[in-house]
Amino acid sequence: MGLVILIVGVGSIADIMAIDAIKESTTSIGFPLYVLPFFGVMKILGTAAILIPSLNRFKEVAYAGLIYYFIGAIYCHVAVGDGMD
C-alpha cells in the first residue's frame, strides 16, 4: 500500500506541475492539458483520504477512485496503441 500511495502522491504533483513527460503522455492519448490539474488534485485528495485516519468514511471511495483512474489510464493507452515502452 505504501508504494502505491507514494507513486500516486508523486504522480499527483507531476500532474499539477504539468511536467513535459506528463504533458506528452496526456496529449498522446487525446486528452486536453486542462485535465492535468484536476487529475492531480483528485489523486492528492484520494491519497489524503487513505492516509488520514479521521477520514475513514472516504477510504473505500478513495480506493475505488484510484482503481478507476488506473484502469481508465490503462484502457486509454491501450486504445491508442501505446506500448509498454
Helices and strands in order, then pairings?
Blueprint: H1 2-17, H2 20-28, H3 35-51, H4 59-79
Helix pairs in contact: 1-3, 3-4
Shape descriptor reads globular
State the separation between the terminal residues, measured CA to CA: 25 Å
Class inferred from helices and paired strands: mainly alpha
* Fraction of residues in β-strands: under 5%
Number of strands: 0
Q: SSE order, as H and E?
A: HHHH
Largest sheet: none
Instruction: Work out the helix count.
Output: 4
Instruction: Calculate the mean pLDDT score and round it.
Output: 90
Low-confidence stretches: none
Radius of gyration: 13 Å
Helix % is over 70%
Question: Could you characterize what this model shows?
Answer:
- This protein is an all-alpha fold.
- Helix content is 74%, strand content 0%.
- It is built from 4 helices and no strands.
- Helix 1 (2-17) packs antiparallel against helix 3 and helix 3 (35-51) packs antiparallel against helix 4 (59-79).
- It is globular and about 40 Å long.
- The protein starts with a helix and ends in a 6-residue tail after the last helix.
List keywords for this structure.
mainly alpha
Write a concise synopsis of the structure shown.
With 85 residues, the chain is mostly helical.
